[in-house]
Request: fold
Amino acid sequence: MSDISCIKMAEPVIHGVLKIVWDDGYEGVVDLRPVIARGNIFTHLQNAENFRRVVLGEYGHYLYWLNEHGEEIDLGSDSLRRRAESQAEMHQLAG
Reply:
């Protein structure tokens, strides 16, 4: 049995931020703006329209976007979950 929770749903909230629901019921908001700002493979996502085209990958193990060359820009479920939990904790501490 895998320890990785699978993503059931992901939707953009604002440019660079996703609301994600995992199969274990956890819901989180993930701010990807710092990642996108780094550029390189993420430059494609600096365009808001491109960011809105997020796709749920096979079995919910990842999210991806297709760039202008048809190449996948992907982020795994486990790393997104860690980021969501970490960001939620920071918001609680700041609040």
In short: The mean pLDDT is 94. The longest helix spans residues 77-94.
